[in-house]
Amino acid sequence: MQVPSPSNAGDVRKIVDERLKALDASAGMLETVSVEWRGSPRSLPVISMPVELLSYNPATHRVRAQRTLDPVRNLELETNPFGAGGQAYLHQLLTGDPTDPTKPDPSFEALKEDLHEHGQNEPGIATRQGVLINGNTRRAALKELNQEHMRVAVLPPDAAIDDVQSIELALQLRKDFKRDYSFMNFLLAVEERAQLGRPSLEIQRDFRIKGPTLERSRWILDFIRDAIDRSRVALPGGSTVSLRLVDFETHQGKLEELYRAYMALKAKAPDEAEALREQRLIALVLGKSKTDLRLIEQDFADRYLPVLAESEQAASAPAVKIPGTSITAKPATARVQALRAAASEILKAKAIDIAGESATKELATRAAQQLSQLDSAMESALDHAGRTGRLVKKRFAPSDRLSDANESLQLAVESVAQARATNAFNAEDLDEALLEMKKQLVKLAQIAAPMPIEDADGIAWLRAVAAIDDEP
User: Fold this and answer.
1) Taking the CB of residue 357, how many other CB atoms lie within 10 A of it?
2) Are the C-beta atoms of residues 234 and 351 closer than 8 Å to each other?
3) So where are the chain's domains?
């Protein structure tokens, strides 16, 4: 299957062919980019192309989750991906903060500043029709800098969709690539490879992840899709609103910790695991912090939040028949059904609240009141739980603390990017803090590195960073 083409594809292809021929006739050194092409390395020739003739790739993984921000504009993008409206929407998403595309992204501003100061170091990659497979964000920055040309490596004329997806993924996962996929876009990219029928081992190799990480990624995306489906509300006039993939961008740490706690509990008490899942989902929707979510155990509502525990009195459901078999599965307990029903109501209220003017004033007012009332009750319950319960289970405390440290590092990256964008960055300012971080990493390595863990790349990295010898 060939890659979709913009309306100016014919004209762009003529220019590309002419410039490639000019390269062939040149006696000088030619610039090339090496990519993995159908199982073997291949060098692609680099040419200079007018920025305005190039097109953003509507299938880029970089903004797949962010496209759900505006369903109307996303529909226009799907209907006419290379039209002015669709391309303008892609430009907004490429330049916006992944967690809130309506706001500028400090990393994008830093990229603009770098391009302005040093020029384009890395060429993009484009099809013969001018669709960018790699370099979409750079093109957005060059457009805003009013630059006329962009260097791009050109794919072979028979490039198909599968080739394009493989190249984008391979380039994204290079260690020296400039900008990572956001949390949600990583989950979607993993899902896409699975839907294409790729074996799990191949997906792990492609993304450089281990089996448990792959399983966690699948579970989290299924959890998010279930929450989105449950949040859907029909509005007067026939339209619907729901939560969006982009609404979960900032919840990576919370969802990863929920997965660990859920799986640990599910093996011995499945219903308790489901109760934990629903209660933490409610707290997540209400915007509670990761530290707050750690306070929520499977009996949280029973002990601290009776308004939630008593909000629904669901009757026991009949046994569920497994499709395609005569086997029946035991239904969830009335307590779990009640918690699930309460969580679904909060999901719907949050969807209406986010929809804003798209919903009626009556619905919006009722949803805001519902969220406010439960939020107040949740705050009191969390305060009570924090004073009477343990903050973190001992088993999960180390990984949870490292998760907090990782989030702090992400904030540091954003701060440095913002400082660079405003020419207010001085590398020497980081020196003292980095030395302190090194000291703590050495201590952590001395405690954790001697532990015998098979195939532990993280521990091996920690040992190398801290320069811990293998000898005891």
Assistant:
1) 7
2) no
3) 9-179, 213-315+330-388, 431-472
